Amino acid sequence: MSVEAKPADPRIAIVTGGSRGIGKAIVERLCRAGVDVCFTFLNNEQAADSVVQALQAEGHAVRAARADSRDAAALFALVESVLAERGRLDVLVNNAGVTADRLLHTMSEEDWSNVLDTSLNGLFGATRPAARQMMRQHAGRIVNLTSVSGVIGIAGQTNYCAAKSAIIGFTRALAKELAPWGVCVNAVAPGYVDTGMLSSLTPAQRKAALERVPMRRFASADEIAALVAYMALDAPSFITGQTIVIDGGMTA
After folding, report:
1. Is residue 248 a contact partner of residue 215, using CB atoms and an 8 Å limit?
2. Dist. CA 165–CA 159, nearest whole Å
3. Domain boundaries in the chain?
4. Over its length of 252 residues, how does the chain's per-residue pLDDT go in tens digits?
5. For residue 39, how many other CB atoms are within 10 A of its CB?
6. Residue closest to 115 by CA, chosen among 136, 104, 101
7. Residue 160 among the catalytic residues
8. Are the beta carbons of 76 and 20 closer than 8 angstroms?
9. DSSP 11
């Protein structure tokens, strides 16, 4: 069964890190496109419940599951549980990520490990069973959230840049592995997005960030979600192994 066939039954999707910011916007976009979504959260159960209640009130099929993206086994178990319940998986969006910006000479091992583990361990844990299922189906879409930080170097983000660059390499390699089975694997690389991740910027830092963007504004989370949903549901199936940058011209 192919994603493009748009089956009578709702398509099934898993989104990691879906309770806030870009992840929340992705969950909303997918649900409103008729997709049955399971998303993960870690600490903020109230925020996750709020997302679920709002979308269920609109008549959408959505649920939240607590899972730590630093724990590959936990993400593996989550995907396996969805497969056991629903019998297939059409879309996986690996979105979970954190920042802990520091200049390298002041960075702790905890800051380094937390950023890389959150971005990469869950990516491995969730994608391994998802890839197996999509190979059996001969169809499926995997979309990995990376960042312009994985494309260009940004001072103070050696941990984040390393993690996001790794996601790009992972995407390219996996796309080649899964292409013979008709499974598409792509990455989306946002620039500055007006979410909680920017809340720590001082007014001077915010002004400097805006000056780096030719459009002189930050993206909204929904703009990123619109691209992710397109790649997950509607993009031509000949697109695979690509990193699609959405940054207002920042890396042009």
Report:
1. yes
2. 10
3. 8-237
4. 344 445 557 899 999 999 999 999 999 999 999 999 999 999 999 999 999 999 999 999 999 999 999 999 999 999 999 999 999 999 999 999 999 999 999 999 999 999 999 999 999 999 999 999 999 999 999 999 999 999 998 999 999 999 999 999 999 999 999 999 999 999 999 999 998 777 777 888 889 889 999 999 999 999 999 999 999 999 999 999 999 999 999 999
5. 28
6. 101
7. yes
8. no
9. P
Q: Which CATH number fits domain 8-237: 3.40.50.720, 3.40.640.10, 3.90.180.10, 3.40.50.2300?
A: 3.40.50.720
CA dist., res. 167 & res. 93, Å (int): 12
**Per annotation, catalytic residue among 39, 76, 160, 218:** 160
- Closest by Cα among 185, 182, 165 to 174: 185
Residue 247 CA to chain centroid, in angstroms?
A: 16
Q: Which residue has the tokens 């702790």?
A: 108
Dihedrals phi, psi of 126, to nearest 5 degrees: -75, -40
- What counts of helices (H) and strands (E) characterise the chain? 7, 7
